[in-house]
Amino acid sequence: MANISLEPTPSISAQPYPGAPDNWRRFFTFSTDHKVIGIQYIVTSFFFFLVGGTFAMIMRGELITPDADLVDRTVYNALFTMHGSVMLFLWTFPVLVGIGNYLVPLMIGARDMAFPRLNAVSFWMIPIVGILMMVSFLVPGGASQSGWWAYPPVSIQNPTGNLINGQFLWLLAVALSGISSIMGAVNFVTTIFKMRAPGMTWFRTPAFVWSVLAAQLIQLYGLPVLTAGAVMLLSDLSFGTSFFAPERGGNPILYQHFFWFYSHPAVYVMVLPAFGMFSEILPVHARKPLFGYRVVAVSSILITLISGVVWVHHMYASATPGWMRMLFMVTTMLVAVPSGIKVFAWVATIWGGKIRLTTPMLFALGGIINWVFAGVTGIFLGSVPIDIHVNNTYFVVGHFHYVLYGVIVFGIFGGIYHWFPKITGRMYYEGLGKLHFVLTFAGTFLIFLPMHPLGLMGMPRRVASYDPEFAYWNVVASLGGFLLGMATLPFILNMVSAWIRGEPAGNNPWRAYGLEWLTSSPPPVENFEEIPTVISPPYGYGQDQPLIATNEHQEATQVP
Amino acid sequence: MTVERAIANQTEARIRQEQAHESAENSKFGFIVFLLSETMIFLGLFAGYITYKTTTTDWYPAGVTGLETREPLMNTIVLVSSSFVIYVAERYLHDRKLWGFRIFLLATMAMGGYFLWGQAVEWRGLTFGFTDGLFGGTFYLLTGFHGLHVLTGILLQSLMLGRSFIPGNYESGMFGVEATSLFWHFVDVIWIVLYTLIYVWQ
Question: Which one of A122, A176, B3, B140 is at 20 to 30 Å from A204 when CA atoms are compared?
């Protein structure tokens, strides 16, 4: 605790105006305030994080012994399908949209998102998506068993013959989540393009905002293509067409193109905001400007562009012709360039800085370490010969869980801790936060690292039972999985108790440099009393430069 | 006191106006972003169509040799010219000539309706269905999905027609009409590509 400097605050300013906000009921209303919607997103998706985590722990319980003895094999299939779907469509996407929703208008000096009502509509679709996914366990035949990517011909089987089957509900839920994401993306892009405060040029816009923009642009070009594929899959499943049905002359590989054209860039939709949060957290807690800020900002957009032409690397083993494999191997390797630029910039940012190892800083550093590891295994998988060898093994599972948990969830936790004092006006408990970090880091390491040797040994993914020779690493991974599950408990305890009775944090407990820290904590409705005029680039640590014009200056500029 | 209040009211009115203008600008920008995204759905479906057409061995279902092009060409001409008609309607509204706007908007709706009707007649005369192979599937999927967009466009136009009777409707701009018109141009451009792919390239 000694290394955080808390500004003394005489009174807590949790009430933006008398009698209104701090009451929790507003979170259950159709509010159009981007801050309320942001918290609605974060809390709802955290609930589904727990659901998806429970599925994961049941699966690890199954895999702790070589035999399929804990759950039925069909239940296991449904579990891994729903684990993936819940974690992606109900946790990672919405929680990052929620964090972006809360922060983007504050960071660019806007009063709200461009379309507040649209924003609320996109949020309220998320609980419906969740209900559809959960209800699919109860229909005859159970939930979808075709994995989160729903490859045909497995996904167009309908053994029960009912119109309403698990796969149908799954497709409905994914379509709804897609509509919500497209509406959110239109909202974000318009907000970022049109509503930046006066003086906030593109190169005065924080790196997090750049990364959200880059991520949402991917949603705009990628999701519609998946929608096209999903419509065709749905009509195969429900109306008997033959787009992807090989026995009726269809082409199941084409679905894979549709799917990965979106779903590979989708990884960047999730990882880019996490990168953005690293770029925000590091300068604050190392007291140094973000190294190469302009390059970091532009590299996000580069990732948007390159990620649109790499999707076939998921299909090296899908009868893909040789020239296509080569081409996509090259483009896949190219993504490492902007990602590497970011890592170098982060290292250079903390190099020689006055590092405060607070919880958000620990999560950011841990996330970057995991990213380097996941990036290296990503290069492995991007190269055709290795991918052919480890295709559909636990090596792939280990790789993408390192990305999704080790980088993205670390980024999310780091971001939540970092902006918790801004969101609630209260400080979280540093000790519990550090405990959470240590358990999470150890758990991530223990569960996901053993998956790599398992994959190299040849253990296939998506199986409920396996050869006893794989038992050793599976036991380690399962124990790590339970540890990771338990690691969430100090986080919940920390957040709930700190929100209720934590120390008042003041407006800027980190002495951070950014528009969101200039308003009160929590920010009032409409965020700023007066829209600020930005006069400096972000991250002005150690440069003694004001970020915004003072009132006199503003009036002076208005006079002529 | 009254002077202060007058100034305050004036400032508030000015800010309101600026905000309304700004939000109309934002809506237009957002709508264009949405249309670009919507274009990607069609591009995805077109890419699927091209892949199927170039790789499938038995493209046409048994007994089908191709599509009749004369009536669809008539349909195309009507739909594409309706794009100019709605543009004229928009110009009339710009000059605050409400009746001119309404008449030309109605003409657009009639032309859109003619297109849909022609499409329905064509569908009824066809010997293959949605489930008849890849040709049947893609044909009905593409024309049906586009037809849904035409229907949406007509519904938007009738909404705009109804709203034109509300007094003072255009005081804070005419974003709704602009968006409807943009959407209609979008539907037309998509149809030109679709017509080329399905009817011309046989």
Answer: A122
Domain-wise residue ranges, chain B: 30-200
Residues B37, A185: C-beta atoms closer than 8 Å: yes
Give B26's contacts in chain A (Cβ within 8 Å).
114-115, 190, 194-195
CATH superfamily, domain at A31-552? Cytochrome c oxidase-like, subunit I domain (1.20.210.10)
CB-facing half-sphere around the CA of A397: CA atoms within 13 A: 25
C-alpha distances (whole Å) from A375 to each of A74, A133, A368, A401, B126 are: 33, 31, 10, 12, 54
Q: Distance between CA atoms of A226 and A229, rounded to whole angstroms?
A: 5
Q: How many CB atoms lie within 10 A of CB A324?
A: 12
Map residue B176 onto helix, strand or coil: helix
Model pLDDT for residues B94-108, shown as the tens digit of each residue: 998 999 999 999 999
Tell if the CB–CB gap between B44 and A240 is shorter than 8 Å.
Answer: no
Q: What is the DSSP string of A480-516?
A: HHHHHHHHHHHHHHHHHHHHHHPEE--S-TT---SGG
Within 8 A by CB and 6+ apart from B100, the residues are B88, B89, B92
Interface confidence, given as ipTM, is 0.89
Burial class of residue A388 (count of CB atoms within 10 Å of its CB; 0-12, 13-18, 19+): exposed
Which residue type sits at A549?
Answer: A
With contact defined as beta carbons under 8 Å apart, do A503 and A510 qualify? no
In angstroms, the CA A463 to CA A472 distance is 16
For chains A and B, what is the number of CB pairs under 8 angstroms? 98
| Whether the Cβ atoms of residue A476 and residue A450 lie closer than 8 Å to each other | yes
d(CA B134, CA A249): 7
Token pair, residue A509, equals: 């407990």
Rounded to whole angstroms, the Cα distance separating A28 from A13 reads 23
Among A417, A418, A423, A451, residue whose Cα is nearest residue A436: A417
Place of tokens 């700004």: B22
Residues 6 or more apart from A550 whose CB is under 8 A from it?
Answer: none
Give the closest of B55, B56, B141 to A232, CB-based: B141
Q: Record the tokens describing residue A365, joined without a space.
A: 């550093």
Q: What is the mean pLDDT of residues B35-45?
A: 95
Q: What share of chain B is helix, strand, coil (3-state, %, to 5)?
A: 80, 0, 20
Q: Would the CB atoms of A243 and B137 count as touching at under 8 Å?
A: yes
Structure tokens at A393: 């093994």
- In the three-class reduction of DSSP (H, G, I as helix; E, B as strand; rest coil), residue A541 is classed as coil
Of the listed ranges A530-534, B33-37, B43-47, B66-70, the one predicted with least confidence:
B66-70
pLDDT tens digits along A405-430:
999 999 999 999 999 999 999 999 99
Q: What is the CA radius of gyration of chain B?
A: 22
Query: Looking at the predicted structure, is the pLDDT value of residue A226 above 80?
Result: yes
- CATH class, domain B30-200, is mainly alpha
Residue B78: alpha-carbon gap to chain centroid: 14
Contact check, Cβ <8 Å, B131/A261: no
pTM of the full structure: 0.91
* Least trusted range by pLDDT, from A367-376, A489-498, A528-537, B191-200: A528-537
Q: How many residues does chain A have?
A: 560
- Yes or no: say if B163 and B11 are a contact pair by the CB < 8 Å rule: no
Establish how many alpha carbons lie within 13 A of residue B2's alpha carbon, considering only the half-sphere containing its beta carbon.
0
Q: Output phi, psi for A427, to 5 deg.
A: -95, 140
Is residue A323 predicted with pLDDT exceeding 80? Answer: yes
Nearest Cα residue to A488 out of A422, A396, A401, A416 = A416
A318 contact B CB<8A: no
Lowest mean pLDDT among A10-14, A416-420, B47-51: A10-14
B58: Cβ contacts below 8 Å, ≥ 6 apart: A249, B133
